[in-house]
Design a protein that fits this description.
CATH class of the largest domain: Alpha Beta
Strand content: 25-35%
GO molecular function: ATP binding; metal ion binding; phosphoribosylamine-glycine ligase activity
Number of strands: 24
Radius of gyration: 21 Å
Number of helices: 13
Shape: globular
Catalytic activity: 5-phospho-beta-D-ribosylamine + glycine + ATP = N(1)-(5-phospho-beta-D-ribosyl)glycinamide + ADP + phosphate + H(+)
Cofactor: Mg(2+); Mn(2+)
Structural class: alpha+beta
InterPro entries: ATP-grasp, ATP_grasp_subdomain_1, PreATP-grasp_dom_sf, PRibGlycinamid_synth_ATP-grasp, PRibGlycinamide_synth, PRibGlycinamide_synth_C-dom, PRibGlycinamide_synth_C_sf, PRibGlycinamide_synth_CS
GO biological process, one term: purine nucleobase biosynthetic process
Helix content: 25-40%
CATH superfamily of the largest domain: ATP-grasp fold, B domain
Strand order of the largest sheet: 3-2-1-4-5
Distance between the termini: 54 Å
């Protein structure tokens, strides 16, 4: 099987790495890829960019791809998967209609309501008057979300009413701007990827990511500064419960609407005192959780994704997992997330050693074989260990060997879990 992976981030690097380890995969091509992906797969340009559906479909036909895997959310929402399927090529990733589960938070709320999925109370607002009424109705802490795609940075959670109103105003200023004002959900957050062919749902292992830029969850939201898996503190039966109460009803509802969802349904959860509640849906693998989830997946990835794309997921047996814990730490450029600096040379990539590996996120070729920063999140450093402590030690030792002027990273990824300090609020007894 020949697979074309669309995207250029650490998520795509993780997917390519897993695909190259699958004996059933003969070749992996990435477009546009990055310098890290280029060391393990063939990279091809996308002259029309990631959102050019006909261009992606043409490249897939040109390289005789048996499967196209679309990594980022923007091309899915733009209908790139539709263009690939129109050429008769199997594609992992939902249609533009189905990808609205991520493209519009208001639409996702509508689907959840129809499917009986437990989620936060929410008000969809198109004016500042509606926003202020919703903020007053739900109270602090305030949660205000941009209705559309915002690369993980469209959400503000704050006790400051002024900050909540300012964020809403910024979102509403866009053409067709809408915001969703939600009740605040207590409890730790969990990411669960559910693979689906539109009918069958197969969950992967849960992970937890770290959205805030600074240690102790301080500072603004980012695309994600690190992650770990498995979650030893999660309640027994959580995955089966989420599949039964969230993922399967959502997939069934989408099919009944005539817009079946095939790909990965990313379920972002809060484990609240009232039980699990959906924070958000995404229509693709999450970054950086993919880096740790795929590190632990022992079942070959290519066959799994192909089954999702061809409606044969019910024929896949039980998934196999490596028992080790995995941790990833993101190295971000100076100024991220507000105004990331690019063009700085990265040193020490060849000094990481065998205990960890580096996935490229925002990098570009520099002079004379050098690699330079080309984005906000520059690298994801991944390590595995017999327990979280060992995985953390290995990951941070590798991070310390890499040098990027002005870069920063969180030092507390998975630390609370390692110390046994993550707890799920107890549900009140009847």
């Amino acid at each position: 099987m020949k697979v074309l992976v669309i995207g250029s981030g650490a998520r795509e690097h993780a997917i390519v790495r897993a695909l190259t380890a699958d004996p059933a995969v003969d070749a992996v091509i990435a477009a546009p890829g990055n310098p890290g992906i280029d060391t393990i797969a063939l990279c091809r340009d996308l002259p029309g960019g990631l959102l050019d559906g006909p261009g992606v479909a043409h490249l897939a036909a040109e390289v005789h791809a048996d499967l196209v895997v679309i990594g980022p959310e923007a091309p899915l929402v733009a209908g790139v998967a539709d263009a690939v399927r129109a050429r008769g090529i199997a594609c992992f990733g939902p249609t533009a209609q189905a990808a609205r589960l991520e493209g519009s938070k208001a639409f996702a709320k509508e689907v959840m309501a129809a499917a009986g999925v437990p989620t936060a109370l929410a008000h969809v607002c198109t004016s500042l008057d509606e926003v202020t009424d919703a903020l007053d109705a739900l109270g602090a802490p305030y949660v205000v979300k941009d209705d559309g795609l915002a690369a993980g940075k469209g959400v503000v959670v704050t006790r400051s009413r002024a900050q909540a109103v300012a964020h809403a105003a910024q979102c509403l200023a866009k053409e067709g701007g809408r915001v969703v004002v939600e009740e605040y959900l207590d409890g730790p957050e969990v990411s669960l990827f559910c693979l689906t062919d539109g009918t069958t749902v197969v969950p992967l292992t849960p992970a937890q990511d770290f959205k805030r830029v600074g240690d102790g969850d301080e500072g603004p939201n980012t695309g994600g500064m690190g992650a770990y898996s498995p979650l030893d503190w999660a309640p027994e039966g959580l995955v089966a419960d989420v599949v039964a109460r969230v993922a399967q009803p959502t997939v069934d509802e989408m099919r009944h609407r005539g817009t079946p969802f095939a790909g990965v349904l990313y379920v972002g959860l809060a484990l609240t005192s009232r039980g699990p509640r959906v924070v958000e849906f995404n229509a693709r693998f999450g970054d950086p959780e993919t880096q740790v989830v795929l590190a632990r997946l022992a079942t070959p990835l290519g066959g799994l994704l192909h089954a999702c794309a061809t409606g044969t997921l019910d024929q896949v047996g039980e998934l196999r997992w490596h028992p080790e814990h995995a941790v990833t730490v993101v190295i971000a450029s100076k100024g991220y997330p507000d105004s990331p600096r690019t063009g700085d040379e990265i040193h020490g990539l060849d000094q990481v050693g065998d205990e960890a590996w580096v996935l490229h996120a925002g990098t570009a070729p520099g002079r004379e074989g050098a690699v330079v920063s080309a984005g906000g999140r520059v690298l994801s450093v991944v390590a595995m260990g017999g327990d979280l402590g060992e995985a953390r030690d290995r990951a941070y030792r590798a991070v310390d060997r890499i040098s990027l002027d002005g870069s920063h990273h969180r030092t507390d990824i998975a630390l609370a879990a390692q110390r046994g300090e993550v707890s799920v609020p107890t549900q009140p007894t009847a």
